[in-house]
Design brief:
Elements (H helix, E strand, L loop, with lengths): L7 E4 L2 H4 L3 H13 L3 E4 L9 H34 L14 E4 L4 E4 L1 H16 L4 H6 L1
Parallel strand pairs: 1-2
Antiparallel strand pairs: 3-4
């Protein structure tokens, strides 16, 4: 990028830039070194003052906390569904060899597709075919 080609980077909200504290600080450092400003249209950070930088850091910490909590909640929810014998993937795209029963909330074996999966495992695992040879077959 040509020097001086960018004056300011604008984002709607800090967490749209990143939800990782280190990434935010690294970005701000590089932007500052390049003489590039930063503006969040929904938050008012003045990164030219110590207080403004501190407030931006606090916001970055909370953005990362939110990301980590969402991740934990999703993992917990998927584990609970798996323990209950329910399908943990997207209902519109079950794994090959399975269909999905919305009434039961779990995957259902598709016999024709399951036979193909068993054949693939046999050719690759038992007969030691290469993946390329299995795919061509």
């Amino acid at each position: 990028m040509d020097s001086g080609a960018v004056d300011v980077i604008i984002t709607y909200r800090l967490d749209r830039l990143s939800r990782n504290v280190r990434d935010v600080y690294d970005f701000l450092q590089r932007a500052s070194e390049g003489g590039i400003g930063f503006v969040s249209t929904s938050e008012h950070f003045d990164t030219t003052t110590a207080m403004g930088r501190a407030m931006l850091g606090v916001a970055a910490v909370f953005a990362q906390l939110t990301r980590e909590m969402i991740s934990e909640n999703v993992r917990h929810g998927m584990a609970k569904r798996a323990q209950a014998g329910k399908y943990t993937g997207a209902t519109g795209n079950p794994r090959f060899g399975y269909g999905y029963s919305p009434e039961e909330g779990k995957p259902l074996l598709e016999p024709a597709e399951a036979a193909v999966v068993r054949k693939i495992f046999d050719l690759y695992g038992e007969q030691k075919w290469s993946l390329g040879k299995v795919a061509k077959y």
